[in-house]
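User: Run a structure prediction on this.
Assistant: Running it now.
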Amino acid sequence: MRLVFLGAPGAGKGTQAVRLAEAEGIAHVATGDMFRQAVRDGTPLGQEVKRYLDQGQLVPDEVTIALVRERLSRPDCQGGFVLDGFPRTVAQAEALDRMLEEIGAPLDCVLELEVPEEELVKRLSGRRVCSACGANYNIYSHPPAAEGRCDRCGGTLIQRSDDSEATVRQRLEVYRAQTLPLSEYYRRQGKLRAVDGAQAPEAVAAAIKEAVRSCGRGGAGSS
């Protein structure tokens, strides 16, 4: 089973991708994890990634694609994988298709978690982190017992700059610009399955399993 997860920031795709990979016994492949591991390993590609990250620049497609190619060649991916964070653009999706075609292992399904923008803004702008111990909260869904104070250590809770409402809306705008063409690309292939990501986590997980089964039945379009 070879899958891709799509979803805006705050949609919960990382959590659900890990959950599905564990349930199915396949590899969870996240680009963020790949970047960090490559940098730690000090490989030539890792050194190249570090140079871009240290300069605050985006890692170019060709470097990201080379890392994905290397990661998917490892033994734990031979039985299947869940890609999380890649592809982000149509160019990356086309490169992934070519890569998988070379090894005779095309994607089975692309899962897109759909969450209304206002809910995403609420999830992301409501996040707070303890400045002392790093514990995470959300003032809407997981508030601390005492406002502004960490339950664990009593430290001050802060809002990260990239979680401000204005920044969150800008991130979502960038995501839409990149991903709407990507969704259409996979829809034309008959591989895209839309899942309501605004439900409770258990319900989202159940809907994902049904969507994956629909891919296995060869259905087309969105669920």
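The helical segments are 13-24, 31-41, 44-54, 61-72, 90-102, 117-125, 165-188, 201-216.
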